[in-house]
Amino acid sequence: MNTSIHSNNGSLTGNYVVAGGTKGIGLALVNRLRATAARVDVYSRGIDELTVDDVVRHHTCDFSDPAAIMTDLPDQIHGVAYCPGSINLRSFKSLKLSDFATDMQVNFYGAIQFLQQCYPALNRDADGPPKSAVLFSTVAVGQGLPMHASIAAAKAAVEGLMRSLAAEWSPRIRVNCLAPALTETPLAAKFFSTPAAREALSARYPLGRTGQAEDLAALAAFLLSTDAGWITGQTIGVDGGMSTLRK
């Protein structure tokens, strides 16, 4: 298979590694990549809704485990995305230190484990265009929201990591972060349990709807492509206008 990546057409024809790519946003991203990528390696606890074929491979790996090891990584990687996350919305007084630790492991420490293990292959081939890494934050980092203390703290750490690595890894690797508001995925299913709940949530956003997995996957795929070759160190809101607008 051709594993080169070209800079003249924004292609996504190399090798990509996605953590948490078996449902929700991660799965939507993998399905976009499978159309043109030479190889997509997906690392998650279970296969869930993922379809494995000649392009897409699945490897069992649990990023909630501090000792998580990624096996069978390709020798050269052109882009990576860390998609695992949590939605732990509780009052500060009800949160235990262990709750903060759990959110930090899944969202922050897991991202560190993922990036450190991918880095040698991601940093290979100095003559090609910059490689790309995509992480995920939340609108609650830039806009204070009640009941978000634990997840906002973990995702704020992710944003800090992103900016530091974007500087440290330049110009060889671009690093960016997406900050969604509530997105309709299996992780958030409890918030969309009835049509009335969905309607009430949609009314909070200037664009009149909550996010869909494809909204995030489309931008993540763009950031992984060479079309985004001059974008690094950015947290990009994908939130229906929630972080900057009032309807």
Major sheet attributes? 7 strands, parallel
Measured by DSSP, the beta-strand proportion falls in 15-25%
The proportion of residues forming helix, as a percent range, comes to 25-40%
Mind telling me the C-alpha Rg?
17 Å
The CATH level-2 architecture is identified as 3-Layer(aba) Sandwich
Please give the order of strands in the largest beta sheet.
3-2-1-4-5-6-9
The end-to-end distance, rounded to whole angstroms, is 50 Å
Number of domains: 1
Mean pLDDT: 93
Taking pLDDT < 50 over at least 5 consecutive residues as the criterion, the unreliable ranges are 1-9
Topology as a string of helices (H) and strands (E): EHEEEHEHHEEHEHE
**CATH topology call:** Rossmann fold
How does the helix and strand content classify structurally? alpha/beta
What's the gist of this structure?
The protein has 247 residues and is of the alpha/beta class. Helix content is 32%, strand content 17%. The protein has one domain: 3-Layer(aba) Sandwich (Rossmann fold), CATH 3.40.50.720.
